[in-house]
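In the current project phase, work has continued on tokenised descriptions of protein folds. One protein thus recorded appears below exactly as we store it.

——
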Amino acid sequence: MRAVDDLDRFLAEDLGPGPGPLERDVTTRAIARGEHGRARIVAQEDGTAAGLAEASSVFARLGVKAEHVARDGQRVVAGQEMLRVTGPVAAILAGERLALNLVMRMAGIATLTRRCVDLAHAVNPRCEVAATRKTTPGFRAFEKRAVELGGGVAHRQGLFDAVLVKDNHLVLAGSVAEALRRVRASGWQGPIEVEADTEEQAREAMRLGADWVLLDNWGPRRLAEGAPALRKLGSGKIEASGGILPEAVGAYAPWVDRVSLGALTHSARALPASLELLAVER
């Protein structure tokens, strides 16, 4: 429901306040004469399609019919048609920029995620590629969905749906053992992940039954040396995180169960796309 509400808010941001959304596009209102037409959204570079469902919802709110030529999560090539729309030209133009912004931003994230997943699976087919909470305020649901469309995992949506004991929590509790004791005493029943900067923290988290041990800012060489020994201490899974560049994912993936990258959402380049008006009936 939140994503639906957000689309209404995004439209209002572009069209401005007041009744009659099509009348608020002052340029089109001055030029249009009630024409109907057809248009299409086209990928301008190779990548992974995303945001098409959201773009369709934008057009639907404006009375425009959308037909999916490609599907979200599908690999596309430059020049490929992804979405076809039919309806009042004024409505098509009113939704054009928001629809393109959603497609370009989400497809950029999905494309980068797919590239990282391919790099990880080339050396470890079982390694996940995950997003972080380093997202655009108000746009997290869309960015996390784009990661999933690219073959990645969302990780946690926020502070409410997973326990991740980070460095400042360890300062607060005084130790990994005390932090885990407090979490379990709170009644939490879900998985517990502990971020470890040091070998001592990682060993303690694994021995005490953490479901995930996040090795923060451990380089590939350090992982190669430490991860095998760490697995002998418990059944927890291992995640690598902390400043990992997309092109380096393959160097981390052999040693871990998951690589998480803030770059998937905070540094993904938009996938260029355009809306082309194909025909107008006057």
User: Anything to note?
Assistant: The CA atoms of residues 120 and 250 lie 5 Å apart.
